[in-house]
Design goal:
The protein is 62% helix and 0% strand. The chain is built from 9 helices and no strands. It folds into 2 domains: 98 residues; 108 residues. Helix 7 runs parallel beside helix 9. The chain has 253 residues and is mostly helical.
Length: 253
Amino acid sequence: MSSTTHTRPPGSGPREDQPGSEVPSLAPWEAPDSAPAPLPPREAMRAVPPLVEQARAASGTERAALAGHLNRELEALGSEGGSREVADLLLHLLESGQLEGLEEAEGRTCRGVAVETLVGLGYPYALEVRPEDLEYLRNQSRPTRKGLLTKGALAAGVLGTGFVGEWVFLPPELTEGKSALGLPLFFLMGLALMGLVTALWGDERSDTRRAGLLGLLVLSVVQLYLGSLGGYYGTLSGVGGLLAWLLLLLPRR
């Protein structure tokens, strides 16, 4: 692997006569998702350097929001395959240390995303990644997987506790199948369990995970609502599902 310092590629800095050189600043109350959509690679190359400067100058919520925007632009750099200009920009940002300390609200660091993008460019650019950057990426990934397993176990435990508590307090006519009121309860509990499994199965930003979380939330709210009505039991399982949903929303570390 090459350890030489690469010069910043021409055009990587901001220019007033080129589109995409102006990067809007996010106010502290703006969420990361309110940032503009990722630019095409050529425009992203011009937008990244000033965005890095804005993020480093910001603090608190605004810094995290700008870091999230920067991560999307870094990912966009590799969306059309590898190029010398893109690789040089990423190497310059990594070697200069400009990405240190930049982390979005969900826990992804800009340095880690830059390394992932550079590796994703493929041969020969991936061979230029410094060993310390690869080690950093590996170390960052380990706690993320550990955190996912911990959160999944806690969420499953909370949901299971709600199910068990619901079963304990059910009247005998429901548990013995002598009343039709138990059928919708057991059906909703089964669907909530499927929602939890789906949310754990999907990746952080995948549609599968979003669908599982949405299903778990809706089913839990329905059980809480029906549990407030006379003649229906579902409050405990609804509370368990809602708590499990909240646990899964915590950022992965």
